[in-house]
Amino acid sequence: MKTVPVGVSARHIHVSPEHIEILFGKGYELTNFKDLSQPGQFAAQETVTIVGPKGKFEKVRILGPARPSTQIEVSRTDSFALGIKPPVRESGYIEDTPGLRVIGPVGEVELERGVIVAARHIHFHTSDAEKWGIQDKQKLRVKLHGERPLILEDVIARVSDQYALDMHIDTDEGNAAGVNTGDLAELLE
Amino acid sequence: MKTVPVGVSARHIHVSPEHIEILFGKGYELTNFKDLSQPGQFAAQETVTIVGPKGKFEKVRILGPARPSTQIEVSRTDSFALGIKPPVRESGYIEDTPGLRVIGPVGEVELERGVIVAARHIHFHTSDAEKWGIQDKQKLRVKLHGERPLILEDVIARVSDQYALDMHIDTDEGNAAGVNTGDLAELLE
Known about the structure:
Two copies of one chain form a homodimer.
Chain A: E1 2-9, E2 12-14, H1 17-24, E3 32-35, E4 42-51, E5 56-64, E6 71-73, H2 76-82, E7 88-89, E8 101-103, E9 108-110, E10 115-118, E11 121-125, H3 126-132, E12 139-144, E13 150-160, E14 166-170, H4 171-177, E15 184-187
Parallel strand pairs in A: 1-14, 2-5, 6-10, 7-10, 11-13
Antiparallel strand pairs in A: 1-15, 2-6, 3-4, 4-5, 4-8, 8-9, 11-14, 12-13, 12-15
């Protein structure tokens, strides 16, 4: 059985250097709170409030390091509570997506775009992908062995020698199956 | 293709006659707000607030008619927000489940038990089940053709001549797939 560790992502935000300065003050640098599974990525100490037309969430974790464009990843459940309808997208593809208001301790930003529901995907190190015969961008089927077992289709393979083996799903997907970060999923043929 | 209409259930509560009187007053009768897919079942006009150790939800819809035991059905996502850990159960099986505080306009009830995450299931009229060769309690596999397609395993068949064909899933499952009430799911062989 080919198994892949699961990482369940709660709502979070990647912030551009410009927006970090607006939200937290000039020259501000994010603080590493905890390393994430992908090399160089970290959960920051800092959080923000995100505000939509219908609702808001406080203490939304920033993931670092800073990125060229600010991007907010929410679950479909979150999007209903916020009152917006973001598309399911791969990270980085934020054309024609809705925005939100982002409030930090020093200032706030009205995003014109940047909110997505992250498309589920698996990060493969090149060596894992070669061993299992998997190509970058390939769509995979993955079984989650939780309290309510289910099979995810169209799971996108992302292959790089900068990646560590890990499947990223959101809280809707994790809770629908009853799996948690660190559980093992089964890659189907 | 064997298709089944989907009903996505948001958090809701079934209330006993005794608890209706405590919450709404002596002799109170529920008001039918909207008929549901199953004959005789309805969404009531009335709502309550449910309160857990960590959070609460207001305007939780009562489904009628009254039942012998009060039962609250929440999603796994809801259960984290409330701060309780209800098991995945078929409706009616509330032994060893957590409770919640329920607040109505007149009074309130501290439930000792009754909170579950409803196990997904399909109601089949006897004639549908005979046509497709499905037995009561059989476990089925069902494909959801939403924005994020997935296959649900262990979907419980419930067969009765009192039922209308309908699959019941919760908001975590609906949102993980991106399906809504009225969409069609595919019953797999």
